[in-house]
Design a protein that fits this description.
The structure holds 3 protein chains of 3 kinds.
Chain A: E1 8-13, H1 19-31, E2 36-41, E3 48-53, E4 56-61, H2 62-72
Parallel strand pairs in A: 1-2
Antiparallel strand pairs in A: 1-3, 3-4
Chain B: H1 4-17, E1 24-34, E2 37-42, E3 50-54, E4 58-65, E5 69-74, E6 86-93, E7 95-97, E8 106-107, E9 125-127, H2 150-155, E10 165-168, H3 174-183, E11 190-197, H4 201-213, E12 220-225, H5 231-249, E13 254-260, H6 262-275, H7 289-297, E14 311-319, H8 328-336, E15 339-343, H9 345-349, E16 362-363, H10 372-378, H11 381-395, H12 403-419, H13 429-440, H14 452-466, H15 468-473, H16 482-499, H17 513-526
Parallel strand pairs in B: 8-12, 10-14, 10-15, 11-12, 11-13, 13-14
Antiparallel strand pairs in B: 1-2, 1-6, 2-5, 3-4, 3-6, 4-5, 7-9, 15-16
Helix pairs in contact in B: 5-6, 7-8, 10-13, 11-12, 12-13, 14-16
Chain C: H1 2-12, H2 14-17, H3 22-157, H4 160-179
Classes of the chains: A alpha+beta, B alpha/beta, C mainly alpha.
């Protein structure tokens, strides 16, 4: 992905987050060469955060963790 | 009956072992899903043949890599996967579970147990696609693989490391030959793998029953993708089986692998290719259908001693339609393999079973691997049979035959009878030597044509019970000495007199009436 | 008287008394010789020959008879021998056949036993598998229910602080991955 292009990161949260958390997220996203962020609130992920940059997905949601545990049984 | 505590402990154990890591993963989104095929946008760095993980724990195989999307086939869950689901790349190819634990088991092409027995302990895995051994890694085929079928072992011998095609119409006993061969590997230190591709579950169950009852499952693994399994599973089944075979081969073992059958495999691949919208060629097969089978069969090999000297003998099966061996898939596979066993429904229906057409069947490398004694005896067999077949066709037009022709014909009939063999009754090499010797000697003229089969069966029992010393004296790896030949024939003669008696000397019914009377009238005068 | 006279005449001259002359006697004798010789050659010889031939024939027949009876005797002997041989052979064949049959019967029995054993094993295994499957199904159900409960609980009870901590943990982990 070329850095000159405008790359949007999709960030999914379970609930509104505090300003400094959002700031940290922005920092992280920028370190991955991303200059635009779109936030979504989805209570279904229960907690944590899902960040998608291009093809790469960072999944830190409580829902996914639960799913993983359930599938491993 | 069910231990509740065990369940609780088990769950606790599993949860403790669960990997709760927050991965960063490459993913794409499904933009099309239908007929077990998905199209994924994203996933730019996915590789050909890579295993993909679809949201919900399903598996897919990436096969079409295009500029804007990836085409993949689902190995499971084609009903659950829907538009918008995420697909993750795994960075792995499809792996097959391998190891000794798979012997005696029935597994799917990914190595999961299907036979309702305990789970297979997780062990080693092998990629299902693997490069074939190079030229330097190979050795000459020099050891026979005994099928236990007289017609095949005497005239179309198969060596360990050979690829011998079994081809014929439906219901001509193709699978029976393969199963008989597996059964005959008992105590031979050969591991057998039976790959069932697109077969009916009922026929597979029957084969399994047979193998179990004969105790053949101890050294056999059945890899199966039945007709109701997903098409991609049918497609990868032979490669999975081959991966398992390779595991044993590289350990220095001899392996026999049966692909039953490759025409269904080609059909499965055609289905996938058409659904993936690949361009189709002859008979709607995609362009690489030749490579599909050649890369599979090239993996059958005899390894050089430096690599342990193991081998994979492949017996692919191909079904023809109305005996047409010039169709696309049959010609392809014939040209890849080292020979073929051609089965004919006409022969089958006229009671010649196994219905091997000796004229059209060949073995290109097995001859050098044949046991010395069998090679010595069976040299003339093929020629004699060909002569008989030719005469038999010719004789259909007229009935005036001289004595020489009569003799050739009657011997031919008896030879054909000798080569008939009921299913699941395998001959040992010694049995074969005895039967061939008797059928080529003058002794055979004493046996009435209808009694040859019964005589042969009886002779072997008689010999084993009463002349075990002669029987044991036969060494399959040495030429049969004249002395031993006489001994065997003497035993056979003895059995003629006690099983058939004098009525064998009578002129048999095949002679025209006039000739029979002449022969009868001439006899007393001679005295 | 007359007799006496005749007797005396006979005694005195027997030839004269009988009216015979010695010449005729000689002639008669000669005749007799000729007749005898002639007859001998004409009749006696062929008859003798015939008799000899007869005798020879009879002798030959006798000889033939003797040979024949010898042959008959021999045949009888050999028949007896063949019969006894055949009996012996039949006995041995039967013995052999019985042995072969016994072996075959043993084989069949062994195979049947094997099959029975296989079947039992198979059944035992499938029973065990059924149990395992049931257990697995129970585990799965428990896991499903637990996750559902967990979801409900988390949905209600997750605090912004928890959430913040979760997010920051995740970010820290991803960053550490990146550095590696």
């Amino acid at each position: 992905m070329k850095s000159s292009e405008k790359v949007t990161a999709k960030v999914t949260l379970a609930m509104r987050a505090e300003e400094d958390t959002l700031h940290k997220i922005a920092e992280f996203v920028e370190s991955r060469g991303c200059n635009n962020i779109r936030y979504t609130i989805d209570p279904a992920i229960l907690g944590g955060v899902i960040i998608q940059i291009g093809d790469t997905i960072y999944d830190g949601s409580v829902r996914t963790r639960l799913e993983t545990v359930r599938r491993s049984v | 009956m069910i231990d509740v505590n065990a369940i609780g402990n088990d769950i606790r154990d599993k949860i403790a072992r669960a990997r709760v890591s927050i991965d960063e993963r490459v993913c794409g989104k499904i933009v099309y899903s239908g007929d077990g095929v998905i199209r994924i946008s994203g996933l730019h760095d996915v590789k050909y043949n890579e295993l993909l993980e679809v949201h919900g724990g399903y598996r897919a195989l990436a096969l079409n890599l295009e500029e804007s999307s990836v085409g993949a086939v689902l190995l499971s869950g084609s009903e659950e996967v829907r538009y918008g689901d995420l697909v993750y790349s795994t960075g792995e190819t499809v792996h097959m579970r391998v190891g000794e634990a798979l012997l005696g088991r029935v597994v799917d092409p990914l190595g999961q147990a299907l036979d309702g027995m305990e789970e297979i302990a997780a062990g080693e895995t092998r990629p299902i696609e693997f490069p074939a051994p190079s030229i330097m890694d190979r050795d000459k085929v020099n050891k026979p693989l005994q099928t236990g079928i007289l017609a095949i072992d005497s005239m179309i011998p198969i060596g360990r490391g050979q690829r011998e095609l079994i081809i014929g119409d439906r219901q001509t006993g193709k699978t029976a030959i393969a199963v008989d061969t597996i059964l005959n590997q008992k105590n031979e230190d050969v591991i057998c793998i039976y790959v069932s591709i697109g077969q009916k579950a009922s026929s597979l169950a029957k084969i399994l029953q047979t193998l179990r009852n004969a105790g053949a499952m101890e050294y056999t693994c059945v890899v199966c993708a039945t007709a109701d399994d997903a098409v991609p599973l049918q497609y990868i089944a032979p490669y999975s089986g081959c991966a398992l075979a390779e595991y044993f081969m590289y350990k220095g073992k001899d392996v026999l692998i049966v692909y039953d059958d490759l025409s269904k495999h080609a059909v499965a691949y055609r289905t996938m290719s058409l659904l993936l919208k690949r361009p189709s060629g002859r008979e709607a097969y995609p362009g690489d259908v030749f490579y599909l089978h050649s890369r599979l069969l090239e993996r059958a090999a005899k390894l050089s001693p430096a690599l342990g000297g193991g081998s994979i003998t492949a017996l692919p099966i191909v079904e023809t339609l109305a005996g047409d061996i010039s169709a696309y898939i049959p010609t392809n596979v014939i040209s890849i393999t080292d020979g073929q066993i051609y089965l004919e429904s006409e022969l089958f229906n006229s009671g010649v079973r196994p219905a091997v057409n000796v004229g059209l069947s060949v073995s290109r490398v097995g001859g050098s691997a044949q046991r010395a004694a069998i090679r010595q005896i069976s040299g003339q067999l093929r020629v004699n049979l060909a002569q008989y077949r030719e005469l038999a066709i010719f004789v259909q037009f007229g009935s005036d035959l001289d004595a020489e022709t009569q003799k050739t014909l009657s011997r031919g009939v008896k030879m054909t009878d000798t080569l008939k063999q009921p299913q699941y009754l395998n001959y040992s090499v010694r049995d074969m030597i005895v039967l061939l010797l008797v059928s080529e000697s003058d002794l055979i003229d004493k046996i009435p044509p209808k009694k040859v089969t019964a005589y042969n069966a009886g002779l072997l029992d008689y010999m084993r019970a009463n002349h075990a010393d002669v029987f044991e004296a036969i060494d399959p790896d040495k030429k049969v000495s004249e002395e031993l030949r006489q001994k065997i024939l003497a035993v056979a003669d003895e059995y003629v007199s006690c099983s058939i008696g004098d009525d064998g000397a009578e002129p048999h019914v095949d002679l025209p009436v006039g000739a029979a009377e002449e022969a009868g009238a001439a006899a007393p005068e001679a005295e | 008287m007359v007799i006496d006279l005749i007797g005396r005449q006979l005694l005195a001259n027997p030839f004269d008394a009988l009216g015979l002359e010695w010449q005729s006697i000689v002639l008669h004798l000669f005749n007799l010789v000729v007749l005898t010789v002639g007859l001998y050659f004409l009749l006696f010889k062929p008859v003798k020959k015939m008799i000899r031939q007869r005798q020879e024939k009879v002798r030959k027949i006798e000889k033939d008879n003797a040979a024949l009876s010898e042959e008959v005797r021999q045949m009888k002997e050999s028949t007896e021998k063949v019969l006894s041989d055949a009996k012996k052979e039949a006995a041995s064949i039967q013995e052999n056949a019985v042995r072969a049959a016994n072996q075959k019967a043993d084989d069949i029995l062994a195979r049947a036993r094997d099959q029975a054993k296989n079947m039992i094993e198979q059944t035992e295994r499938s029973l065990g598998e059924e149990k395992r499957n049931l257990q697995k199904e129970i585990e799965r159900q428990i896991a499903d229910v637990s996750v559902l409960v967990a979801e409900k609980v988390i949905e209600k009870s997750i605090s912004p602080e928890d959430n913040k901590k979760l997010i920051e943990d995740s970010l820290a982990e991803w960053n550490s991955h990146e550095k590696q």
